[in-house]
Each structure stands twice: as structure tokens, then as C-alpha cells.
Amino acid sequence: MNMSVNIAGVELKNPITVASGTFGSGMEYSEFVDLNRLGAVTTKGVAIIPWPGNPTPRIAETYGGMMNAIGLQNPGIDVFVNRDIPFLKKYDTKIIVNVCGKSEDDYVECVRRLADVDVDLLEINVSCPNVKEGGIAFGQDPKALYSITEKVKAVAKQPVIMKLSPNVTDITEMAKAAEAAGSDAVSLINTLTGMKIDVNRRTFAVANKTAGVSGPAIHPIAVRMVYQVANAVNIPIIGMGGVATTEDALEMIMAGASAVAVGTANFNNPYVTVEIIDGIKEYMEKNGIEDINELIGCVK
């Protein structure tokens, strides 16, 4: 039975990875999860310099999920390359590095610094606010997305995955822009923008006022967007958004995702990734499926 999938020429032993920002760089989770079992580990976002993140409170629970406005807090690329990568290299899993920045130059410099680092794929988080353009995210304007994809591709040694924001009118327009600019794959969806008000304190539950909503509540929206993108572009897709069970992951695959990232579910069940991998294997055995690739995009 074959569970391996291919993302832009990189073979993952199975289609399960983790969503950036929900798993650190795997250190904390390695006590619960055998990282060798995962198809890939996707790291927390890394920038060229350390980012402090947003003021607290920056997490709130919501019905069917959670909200976060962490603000991509990270120790910067120097610490990341010297500490996190050597840790991950001890395991037999692919490494996907999530890259963030506040300007095109930031992204390009970070990708350039990673060119000679032994990692497998780069996931470019274009949901960061573009400071030069007054704070609109790169991933919300197809022209900005095209431009940053093209510039990153020009310096990247590893295949590039553009991580798409769902906070747009037409997700396929964004996916097509990324593909046209040379992106090797896309991942979606990032969090949906939401707000929660603490009625007892009569103020915002999160200091940032708005925050990214994730968890089971957004899953049907994510499946719809993955399906739309799968039918609009010819590059591989990593599907994510509220994946908490084997069934959720299989939905993503059948909608057209070659791999699936598990995010928020890691917080309330640190074993969830391995449970889903075992669940997919059981599903394939039960249904006489020899190759996971038979399932990718099987629902038209």
C-alpha cells in the first residue's frame, strides 16, 4: 500500500503535516508524537530578525475553534537555523519552513538565507501585513501576490509553496496569480479574520481587536476553497483549516489536496496527527485502495 505523495518533486511518506504556528518546530511535540511518523513538519513562521509579536491577550476560545493574534512572534532566522533545523534533521521527516516578512525585501532576504540550509520546501506566509502598502496583506491583492512570488522564486533553492489567505473575494484569482508567478505549490487556507467581544469587561477579547479564526468551525469553508483552487490551477495543494479527524483529512484529499496540514487540533490533542495517519491507512485497507493518489481530487 502506498501512502506517499509528491509536493513539487519532494516525496512525503504520507500526506500529513502540521500547520505553521501550531507545532513550534516540533520540539515541544516530540514528547507526544514520533516525528518520524509525519510526512513533514511545517515550522512556525521565521523572519530575518526576531519579532516580539502582538500585545496580550492574544488568544481567545470560540465556539468550534479559537482565535489568535500572536503576530508571528519568532526568534529570527539566526536562532532558527542554529537551533531548530539541527533538531529537525535528527528525524526522518521532510522539513517545510514557513517564511514571513513585512516587505518584499524581508521575504527575499529570508529565503536567500535559507538557500543553503538543508530543508525541503519553503512555505511563504503572504498573510503578513505589507507595511509599505499601508498594512494590507500581500495575499489579498493578486498583483502584490504575483510580485512577491516572482521575487521569492528568483532566489529560492527549494520549491516554494505560497500560503493563501481566505480573506479575499475570489480564492481562485489568488491561486492563479501564485501559479502564474512560478509558485511550485499552494497551501490553504490561512485563518479567517474574526472578532470577539468580552461582554463582562465590555472590551475586545483580544488586544489586537481582530484575530485569526481557526478550528472545526472553518473546516467546510476550507474544503470549498481547496476544491475551487484544485479546479483552477495545476500545481499541488496542501489543504488545511479545521482538520481534526481522519474524515476531515480525507475530505481535503478528495477535494484535491495532495497533502493535509493539521493545526488547531494539535492544541487539544497532541497525538492527533498520528491518529489521522493511522486512520487514513485503515480507510485505505477497508476500501481496497492501494495508492493514496487515487483519492486526490476524486470528487469532481
Summed up:
This protein is an alpha/beta fold and 300 residues long. 29% of the residues lie in helices and 20% in strands. It has eight helices and 16 strands.
Topology:
Blueprint: E1 5-7, E2 10-12, E3 16-18, E4 40-42, E5 59-62, E6 65-68, H1 77-88, E7 94-99, H2 104-114, E8 121-125, H3 142-155, E9 160-163, H4 171-180, E10 185-188, E11 192-195, E12 197-198, E13 203-204, E14 210-214, H5 219-230, E15 237-240, H6 246-255, E16 259-262, H7 265-268, H8 272-286
Parallel strand pairs: 3-16, 4-7, 7-8, 8-9, 9-10, 10-15, 15-16
Antiparallel strand pairs: 1-2, 5-6, 6-14, 11-14, 12-13
What does the model show?
- It is a single chain.
- This protein is of the alpha/beta class and 300 residues long.
- Helices cover 29% and strands 20% of the residues.
- The chain has eight helices and 16 strands.
- The chain has helices at 77-88, 104-114, 142-155, 171-180, 219-230, 246-255, 265-268, 272-286; strands at 5-7, 10-12, 16-18, 40-42, 59-62, 65-68, 94-99, 121-125, 160-163, 185-188, 192-195, 197-198, 203-204, 210-214, 237-240, 259-262.
- The strands form four sheets. An eight-stranded parallel sheet has the order 3-16-15-10-9-8-7-4. Strands 5-6-14-11 form a four-stranded antiparallel sheet, with no helix packed on it. A two-stranded antiparallel sheet has the order 1-2.
- β5 (59-62) and β6 form a beta hairpin.
- The longest helix has 15 residues, at 272-286.
- The chain is globular, with a radius of gyration of 18 Å.
- The two termini are 24 Å apart.
